[in-house]
Amino acid sequence: MSTSTNADLGLPTLRSGTELVPAVEEGTTQTAKEFSSDQEVRWCPGCGDYAVLKAVQSFLPDLGLRRENIVFVSGIGCSSRFPYYLDTFGMHSIHGRAPSIATGLATAREDLSVWVVTGDGDALSIGGNHLIHALRRNVNMTILLFNNRIYGLTKGQYSPTSEVGKITKSTPVGSVDHPFNPISLALGAEGTFVARTIDSDRKHLTAVLAAAAAHRGTSLVEIYQNCPIFNDGAFDAIKGPEAADHLLRLEPGVEVTVNGRTWAHDPTAVDPGDQFAISRLGETAGPLGHGGPIPIGIFRQVERPTYDDLARGQVAHAQAGVSGSPDDRLTALLRAGDTWNVG
Amino acid sequence: MSQTKEVKQLDRVIIRFAGDSGDGMQLTGDRFTQESAVFGNDLVTLPNFPAEIRAPQGTLPGVSSFQIHFADHDILTAGDRPDVLVAMNPAALRANLAELPKGATIIVDTHDFTKRNLDKAGYDANPLDALGEAGSALAEFQVHALDLTGMTVEAVKEFGLSRKDAGRAKNMFALGLLSWMYGRPTEPTVAFLERKFAKAAAIRDANVTAFKAGWNFGETTETFVVQYEVKPAVLPSGTYRNITGNLALAYGLVAAGVRSGLPIMLGTYPITPASDILHELSKHKAFGITTFQAEDEIAGIGAAIGASFGGALGVTSTSGPGIALKSEAIGLAVMTELPLIVIDVQRGGPSTGLPTKTEQADLLQAMYGRNGEAPVPIVAPQSPGDCFAAAVEAARIAVTYRTPVMLLSDGYLANGSEPWQIPSIEDLPTIDPAFATAPNHVSAKSAAEGSSEPDEFWPYLRDPETLARPWAVPGTAGLEHRIGGLEKADGHGNISYDPANHDLMVRTRQAKIERIADSLPPLQVEDPSGEARVLVIGWGSTYGPIGAAARRVRRAGYKVATTHLRHLNPLPKDLGDILRSYDKVLVPEMNLGQLSKMLRAEYLVDAIGYNHVRGLPLKAAELAEAIGNLVGEAEGIDVDLGEHGLNLPSDHEEAPTR
């Protein structure tokens, strides 16, 4: 999997998402076990979350970062239990708000690798606002969006990514809402790193995670994840023996055909138009459903200054010009302007 | 030139500048305030403006006013009723007339008294036409009907402005005239105008000229025969500045950052009347302050919580509607026990309510407005300048006890101003973040091996004195841990559904907040006679009206005690004994009795409410009558406040008994 350098854009060398995060001492190797907490994992047997957790625990040592400088923040939902199972810093927060908490954390601390774990309900329903604004601001964090197209923790209602006509506990005669395509949404919000992968494809998943972590800015990784209890087999078509017929593995330069037009995929293209067109592949509902294979891989990876770097830059710039102790500067502030003395 | 005008001494004056929203009345009031502050008077101001940015011109809802009370002694309120009304159009006259006492002076700009504007204000006939006629609407007042706009246009014609632009300087003409009447220093305003309009020479010159022309008009015209003098006030010695509540609150947060050594992260969403806190803090990046204008109220507090988890002092600022949206996140901060300051600049409610008007009706929301048992300390400032100390106190509690703290200001404190004695920095408390740096617990394995060396980190192991948990920030090796909204097991902090543990944790979180009372000074009770049988207790911005009302009652010869709460949760430890030592307890509030309810519930005392929700501060004279009646009841005597009550010819606040 490419971790594009974007050199062809004529932009300055890409800054890494983890360049300010302290690394482990040279020669030190970390193991997946060190990244596993002592808490018993409590997802349903067969849940796709196990595979993602294993992949993440195995992948994190490869980052070579100090474990105490990694933070996982989650919202509410099955996948949001994720932080409890990693021996890093973590916060299991409230429904939909993880991106906002991660925004404050990533802005306050440049030396952290910040990860958000969320689901289709958490990120796209109750927390939709925070997701699009995180993407627009391009805060340096990686968002893992576990999409199982169902509400699991509340026991089986349809989600904002469920297909039209979904029969669930809350929609006994079929859901009538048009679903979100998370990739299309993220591209529309001008996300700078937008990718999709599958829980069962460890190799692909790990490669996408590595590229996402290396990206400076908000990386959105949609992970197709199977819920064996309430929406089993949702992604069977792209997992079974005939998966190759239903999958489009995106790589830079791969030929893609949408609506009869063919071009070479370029995730570094600044104009997201073609990337958006690719994101509609595999969709069958609505006027933008073009059918065809389901694309996985990196749709978009472009450089844009991050909110947190710019915000810290403004503070640093303001601080560069000051002299005197904080107490003295506070005194000067309080006494600025019109004052008068009594007695 | 008339150099022989009489100079009359006054001990205090209340002036209200009123005009259309676009007439610049807030600026005029601000300038008069600065002049009076520099002159050395004590003062209190009350801006009162519509929520609309440009309300329909010339209408009653479009009237904007600014009241200033200034005196040669210490005063507590902006005054109930103005001695002088400056009315720039018919609507401003009509909207304010009912609040003037008999004999008040009215300076009115006749320029806008056209048929069209009189209609808009609801006048069938021009009230100025009937001046001097007995029984006319203005008969009881001293009215100076002057073409202020016409004189302004004439004075600034050399600058080549359009008639409309020239007329805009009429507020400076009015300011000049009033500045002459009360002998205000003019240099600060001239300097201010030169600064403000530095890039527009013609407008700068027009404003300065109009200001000076207004002054000169007062000095030369036969219309005004008396100039007034209000001598500087005798206040405790020190350096003073004039300050609004929102500015003082923002400075208090800057000070909290300096005194704790913590960077500050304000996560917020603009809302009236709290936005000025964001505006101010955004200027102070050099103090390590980051301001984050979020996509909504929830993201504002979310970012603040995230920053606090990262070791900054997270702050979020809003008004009542925003608190409603933040409630779930406040609960998360209660559960995760992270320092956080939640600022509620209260305004009239419910729902959108009265965005630009004041109220105290969020007390119970601050106290109880969350799911589950979620205790949050509450700190309330009592005057605009006091917002500074209250913010520092909120930070002390938040950091020391690892808890969200509600800082309850209100619209009156936020926009009102007063002279503020600038504190010396050494007198401010230092706040120790005391970050955890090392493991704090001996693992079972090590203990079994006989080791007593801590080798693991328990995020919910508490300080035995404060019950605060350790604040261990990411980046600290060996202290990796997970927190969240699910119930924690006591000590190690892992998820726990154990019934007994939940009961323990609910009680422990409550006990931690109650422990804060150990750090509070004894409550100050003011009772000059020492024999009062009635106690008046308040919180927040009613401090001024309560103090002023009590002074009236005491001047009339009656006994009353007062006390004021800075801490609403936990309540001071000695409050119960204090309440029980009086026969009657009166609780004036700008709500329907929220503190009364708390006091009744907590102490089983018969707290009597005095409640107004008019979007304005309580009026001292009315409150004095209510206190007087209660004193009468308590002591079995007839109480007549006489000239100190509502029947004052000019409705002045009383000076303190010396």
Automatic annotation (TrEMBL), chain A:
Keywords: Oxidoreductase. It comes from the Bacteria. Residues 76-223 form the Thiamine pyrophosphate enzyme TPP-binding domain. This is 2-oxoacid:ferredoxin oxidoreductase subunit beta. InterPro entries: 2-oxoacid:Fd_oxidoreductase, THDP-binding, TPP_enzyme_TPP-bd. The keyword Secreted does not apply. It comes from Nocardioides panacisoli.
From TrEMBL, chain B:
Residues 22-214 form the Pyruvate/ketoisovalerate oxidoreductase catalytic domain. Keywords: Oxidoreductase. It comes from the Bacteria. Pfam families: POR, POR_N. Residues 267-490 form the Pyruvate flavodoxin/ferredoxin oxidoreductase pyrimidine binding domain. InterPro entries: 2-oxoacid/accept_OxRdtase_asu (IPR022367), Pyruvate:ferred/Flavod_OxRd (IPR050722), Pyrv/ketoisovalerate_OxRed_cat (IPR019752), Pyrv_Fd/Flavodoxin_OxRdtase_N (IPR002880), Pyrv_flavodox_OxRed_cen (IPR002869), THDP-binding (IPR029061), Transketo_C/PFOR_II (IPR009014). PANTHER family: 2-OXOGLUTARATE OXIDOREDUCTASE SUBUNIT KORA, PYRUVATE-FLAVODOXIN OXIDOREDUCTASE-RELATED. This is 2-oxoacid:acceptor oxidoreductase subunit alpha.
